[in-house]
Amino acid sequence: MKRKKIRNILIILTAALLVTASAMTVWAATRLKTVSDLSWDEDTYTLAHWEKVSDAYQYQVYLYRDDSKVAEIKTKKVKYNFKSKMKVVGSYSFRVRALKKDSSYIDGSWSDYSEDMYISADYLEFLEKGIDTQNSGPGADGSGQTTSGTGVVYTAGWVQDGSGWWYRKSDGTYPVNTWFQDTVSGSWYYFNEQGYMVTGWFEWNGNWYYCGEKGTMYSGDCTIDGVSYHFDQSGALIAS
Q: What does the alpha-carbon distance between residue 57 and residue 103 come to, in Å, rounded to a whole number?
């Protein structure tokens, strides 16, 4: 009988130690920060962005339409294009939380909701059928302003025609005789007076620049046709 009591006491003590150890493990773990700076892309309306959280393994994202949850995804990136999940007219929003990689961390709390992005019937039609290139772009009149102010929403992105590549913004306008940064890739491109992407060497505002075969601006130390060059961060050639 005495041995049985001792055994029961040992079991109780062991259980207590396990609970204490578990509590200490949870207490020692660090909660990931709450995701912030949620936004919809200004050109690609279905592209969601948020701020990176240190030590996050991936992110869990909920998409809502008119306050009802319509989709859930997980991604290791800090952006996600919900184009395939925004097929119905309505106001869309999303929220995000950072997920842990191991027991050293605790999943972050859910973020606040993003601002609403209203998806119209016209925009859905453009997403499904594409864009009428007869009414916008360098192939129209080269002004860079063929559809501005009409209220029509276009799918932003790169377009190729018989003369080259150009970039259509969501309002139908396009860069002309200026630099433009692609918000998706982060790369800089230069477009000529007709609105087409420039490649190779060209002079702009008294400085020389070089854009590769795909139009991306060179910066830093680069080798072109076997010759070494140095460009500053703005892309301007630095004379040796």
A: 12
**Considering the chain, what is the average pLDDT of its residues?**
82
Residue 188 is predicted with a pLDDT of: 95
Distance CA 225, CA 60 (A): 46
Residue in the block written with tokens 């959280």: 53
pTM to 2 decimal places: 0.47
- pLDDT < 50 stretches in the chain: 23-26, 131-135, 139-151
Q: Computed over its alpha carbons, how large is the radius of gyration of the chain?
A: 27
Note every long-range contact of 58-64, with CB atoms under 8 Å and residues 24 or more positions apart, other chains counting.
58/99, 59/35, 59/96, 59/97, 59/98, 59/99, 60/96, 60/97, 60/99, 61/94, 61/95, 61/96, 62/94, 62/95, 62/96, 63/92, 63/93, 63/94, 64/92, 64/93, 64/94, 64/95, 64/113
Q: What is the pLDDT of residue 146?
A: 42
Q: Report the alpha-carbon distance of residue 145 to residue 42 in Å, rounded.
A: 18
Q: What burial class does residue 102 get, using C-beta atoms within 10 Å of its C-beta: 0-12 exposed, 13-18 middle, 19+ buried?
A: exposed
Contact residues for 150 (Cβ-Cβ < 8 A; gap 6+): 172
Cα angle 129, 130, 134; round to 5:
120
